[in-house]
């Protein structure tokens, strides 16, 4: 028998998959399943994410049993059931029956397709060779620059990491108690494996920690904030890095252009009992009253380093707009540098796999700004192989394969003469 609520969760997952086809990200749709109980919302999110992670592999198997391409909503039912059967270990009887019921609920077209869905999924349930199919490839607009930067073998390892998904990483407030069952990572973040309901974890209500990928925690470690330093956190929301800066005792101005994201930042600060000056402004024009000791610029970017946590990204993006982002990042770097006192420092960071948004931005900034230099990272837990010849830090999802990977990131610490 199906677990209670399982079909509500499957229906929710199909709704999310339809939203992604229509151009909405899974995060944009966070409120779409409000009517479901929280465990069903969580399961729907997991089912949708797993279906997106294995979409091409599911399609490859389904195409051997389909005589023609099904309508999009029926294709979603087939993919979801295929992933449940072959990846998630779902029992054939329950998964196939549920898929047939969901298909029938799709109106006349669904009723006509129910027999086909039943026949195809019975064959899929006994299909051998799922594990032999290669992980889903990155889209061409991303794969080409990744192969050119890191090589074909690395691109395949990154695709395997995308398929594996991401554990949950936490940054602990200084002095906070360890989280039971969490693994301590070499760089100081802690990691939980398996499905977790964040708000039910010990220490959540007390604000002892916040969710932050281990790679995303490194830009602030690289900046090395000191108590009472004046620090501008540009492009700050939802505030994972603001909280690290505030927890180190710095006087932080958290600047972001998005009021909705700043509301999240303000809630996050309140939960963790931390303080920062919150500024809604365009970081291209905002200026503090006096030069600051340091700037953190976590620039808007393609987010291509976060695909293991956002498997919808390759479906939603087509690579257009990256030129505009590169241009915006360069202008943000130039303005950010003008806010720093002489001798001050800045960390530039992007959660991107694309060298155009990372390594090349720093090369270009050094050319535009004589007197600017890169300071080589010396950080606990950072493998020296991750440091680029120019002194930046390049992180990739295929690093730490035995620990569960990390987001793709680039960061560099710059010093003004
Ligand atoms: C990568 S996210 C920042 C993540 C954040 N630093 C953290 O650790 O939680 C980029 C942010 O840049 C903001 N942003 C984009 N363009 C901006 C601009 N011109 N001025 C200020 N903020 C901007 C977006 O609203 C978004 O919140």
Automatic annotation (TrEMBL):
Domain SAM-dependent MTase RsmB/NOP-type positions: 130-417
Transmembrane segments: none
Domain of life: Bacteria
GO MF annotations in UniProt: methyltransferase activity
UniProt-listed GO biological process terms: methylation
Annotated InterPro entries: MeTrfase_RsmB-F_NOP2_cat, MeTrfase_RsmB-F_NOP2_dom, NusB-like_sf, NusB_RsmB_TIM44, RCMT, RsmB/NOL1/NOP2-like_CS, SAM-dependent_MTases_sf
SUPFAM superfamilies (UniProt xref): NusB-like, S-adenosyl-L-methionine-dependent methyltransferases
Active site, per annotation: 351 (nucleophile)
Entries under CDD domains matching the protein: AdoMet_MTases (cd02440)
Record keywords: Methyltransferase, RNA-binding, S-adenosyl-L-methionine, Transferase
Binding annotation for S-adenosyl-L-methionine: 235-241, 256, 282, 298
Family: Belongs to the class I-like SAM-binding methyltransferase superfamily. RsmB/NOP family.
Full protein name: Methyltransferase domain-containing protein
Organism annotation: Paracoccus stylophorae
